[in-house]
User: Which sequence fits this backbone?
């Protein structure tokens, strides 16, 4: 008998009463606020700012300049971008010299030390976000790998303001996570932090010390 | 580096409790931390109706999942396998360590970066690896501090809660080469960050726990603030996750309510910085993430709790630690006094299964039964009922129907049993009762002056000079 058979055998030896399936959907439906895009964006911003995240309103045509000016103020030498992304291409097209753009082109084994030691910051896209908890939803993939949002000291995130869900449950439902869940799905709600020393909150534990969110409004919208 | 300290509870429980009670510094640390965590939690639940509804929902999800546990474990295994994650089953701590060791040997691993995992503490993973010449190092800041000091966590969420920043400053200055004494918390965290970043980059294997395992998608969910959990599960070539068999839920949509209850109850945060959902190893074309992912499903006598309808509720636990944060006993004696991996009220009800009631029954008595833990438990575990049950089990006659657990009857004392038997006799027979109470009231001056623990700080108990029966007669 294997450990598996023994464990399952012991569990099956007990008869359990089957409670009914919990109705999670109706609980969320009855606790969800009725709000428009602007209200959701405001809630997201408030929640993110409460945990030391910088949030900027911008739009499709202006975020690149905004990012460069923030990077300049922070004195960044380089910015890690993904491969084959529209937003990465837009930045590369600017041809500016102060900020070196580094592409995540190789498997981690081939440039681990460089990523850990030399990269100042990164830019990734968030696929969507959650207003209730101030969370960015990232599904890292081949073009924007997992470590982009973890290793660099500063993480810039581009978010389309129309993609903010009310809560985690509605995000899962609306985006059909159950049928399409990727290798790694992430919620990021602020810069890395810890309160492990005498309950004193400190930012920059192991992940990014700073999180900067560029909230992209539809082009032409007045900010 | 780390020295082994005794983790098995025994008659030393009272000695260890006294040690903390007589240590004003420690008591201040725990009191301060508990007040802080209680207030943080309270601020997360301003709406009592919402809290009540969410707790009911959380409880129903956990009960539903446990009722289907064998089916869900099989479904989880099937979907994890389909996703390319290898599943291992371990009946005991030793088996779990052996499985991990075999994986480590296959990869010639020398170092294992560990994310915070109470199950890994439960199986004494670090010692098992050290015995095989493998360096398993903690990366959660609190766990890192505790490991550096050669100690054990004193709280399941905040492992170094018993330490002041002065103690940590001295520890870092002593143990980390090139580090000067500083009490600045930001500077201390920065030191930890620098030391551990180097080690993450070089680790052969990453080990993590699991907060929720989702059967329908084959997904392992990890909850954390620091990012060390993500490092451990993303940087090394191999990721091993280890979890108790009770952590499985059926559906992805069962996760949001439990996650919300967990973070709000534990540290009073609406959400943690990271929620990390892992469903596959690195896929072709992907540039990072482990090439192999393993899940070790651990029983370690959880099936004993499962077999009993009342004790099964023990397995509803989502490990938030709210019960210990609100426990008047834990706040005074601290986590180490319990001598078990899991301290506090949840430790008192879960440890008897893992270590046997014979080794743990004093913990069931380390409670005032005030019910604070029951009030705050996000999944409504009836902790006090279970504590009373364990007290009865501890004193049951071995072999009787009341003795259903490993180690039942271990707390039985002949004198105590005889006294209760006599008590029962007196109170169930009117004639005997009248006679006894008459003798007690008339012979009250014969009461002993020394009445054990009672008279250590109280006046001795004496029966009243007149019985109620006598007083009633006078009124008439």
Assistant:
């Amino acid at each position: 008998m294997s450990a598996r058979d023994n464990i399952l055998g012991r569990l099956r030896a007990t008869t359990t009463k089957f409670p009914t399936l919990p109705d999670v959907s109706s609980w969320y439906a009855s606790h969800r606020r009725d709000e428009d895009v602007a209200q959701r964006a405001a809630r997201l911003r408030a929640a993110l700012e409460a945990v030391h995240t910088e949030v900027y309103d911008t739009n499709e045509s202006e975020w690149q300049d905004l990012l460069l000016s923030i990077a300049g103020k922070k004195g960044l030498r380089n910015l890690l971008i993904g491969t084959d992304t529209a937003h990465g291409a837009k930045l590369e097209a600017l041809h500016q010299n102060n900020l070196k753009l580094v592409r995540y082109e190789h498997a981690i084994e081939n440039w681990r030390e460089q990523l850990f030691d030399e990269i100042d910051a990164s830019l990734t896209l968030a696929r969507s976000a959650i207003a209730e908890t101030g969370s960015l939803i990232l599904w890292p993939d081949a073009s924007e790998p997992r470590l982009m949002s973890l290793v660099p000291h500063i993480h810039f995130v581009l978010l389309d303001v129309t993609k903010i869900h009310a809560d985690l449950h509605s995000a899962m439902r609306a985006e059909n996570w159950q049928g399409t869940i990727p290798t790694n799905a992430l919620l990021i709600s602020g810069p890395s932090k810890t309160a492990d020393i005498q309950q004193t909150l400190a930012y920059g534990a192991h992940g990014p010390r700073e999180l900067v969110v560029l909230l992209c409004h539809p082009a032409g919208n007045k900010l | 580096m780390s020295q082994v300290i005794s983790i098995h509870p025994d008659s030393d429980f009272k000695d260890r409790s006294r040690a903390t009670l007589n240590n004003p510094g420690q008591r201040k640390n725990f009191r301060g931390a508990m007040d802080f965590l209680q207030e943080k939690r309270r601020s997360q639940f301003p709406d009592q109706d919402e809290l009540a509804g969410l707790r009911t929902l959380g409880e129903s999800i956990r009960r539903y999942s446990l009722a289907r546990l064998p089916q869900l474990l099989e479904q989880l295994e099937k979907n994890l396998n389909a996703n390319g994650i290898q599943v291992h089953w371990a009946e005991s701590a030793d088996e779990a360590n052996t499985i991990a060791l075999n994986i480590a040997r296959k990869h010639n691993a020398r170092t294992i970066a560990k994310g915070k995992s109470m199950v890994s503490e439960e199986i004494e993973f670090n010692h098992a690896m050290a015995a095989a010449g493998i360096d398993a190092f903690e990366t959660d800041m609190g766990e890192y501090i505790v490991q550096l000091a050669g100690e054990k966590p004193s709280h399941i969420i905040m492992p170094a809660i018993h330490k002041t920043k002065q103690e940590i400053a001295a520890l870092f200055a002593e143990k980390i080469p090139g580090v000067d004494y500083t009490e600045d918390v930001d500077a201390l965290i920065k030191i930890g960050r620098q030391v551990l970043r180097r080690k993450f980059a070089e680790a052969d294997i990453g080990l993590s726990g699991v907060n929720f395992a989702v059967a329908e998608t084959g997904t392992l969910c990890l909850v954390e603030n620091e990012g060390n959990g993500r490092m451990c599960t993303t940087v090394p070539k191999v990721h091993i996750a280890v979890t108790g068999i009770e952590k499985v839920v059926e559906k992805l949509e069962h996760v949001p309510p439990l996650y919300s209850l967990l973070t709000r109850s534990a540290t009073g945060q609406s959400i943690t910085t990271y929620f990390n959902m892992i469903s596959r190893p690195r896929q072709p074309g992907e540039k990072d993430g482990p090439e192999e992912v393993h899940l070790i499903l651990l029983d370690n006598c959880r099936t004993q709790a499962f077999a009993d309808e009342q004790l099964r509720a023990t397995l509803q636990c989502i490990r938030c630690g709210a019960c210990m944060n609100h426990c008047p006993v834990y706040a005074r004696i601290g986590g180490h006094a319990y001598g078990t991996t899991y301290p506090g009220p949840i430790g008192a009800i879960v440890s008897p299964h893992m270590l046997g009631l014979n080794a743990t029954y004093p913990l069931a008595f380390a409670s005032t039964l005030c019910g604070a833990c029951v009030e705050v438990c996000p999944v409504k575990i009836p902790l006090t009922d279970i504590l009373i049950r364990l007290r009865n089990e501890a004193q049951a006659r071995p072999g009787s129907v009341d003795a259903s657990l490993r180690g039942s009857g271990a707390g039985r004392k002949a004198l105590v049993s005889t006294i209760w038997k006599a008590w029962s006799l007196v109170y169930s027979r009117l004639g005997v009762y009248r006679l006894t109470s008459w003798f007690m009231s008339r012979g009250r001056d014969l009461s002993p002056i020394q009445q054990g623990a009672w008279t250590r700080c109280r006046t001795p108990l004496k029966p009243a000079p007149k019985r109620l029966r006598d007083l009633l007669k006078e009124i008439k």
About this structure: Chain A has one domain: 35-217.
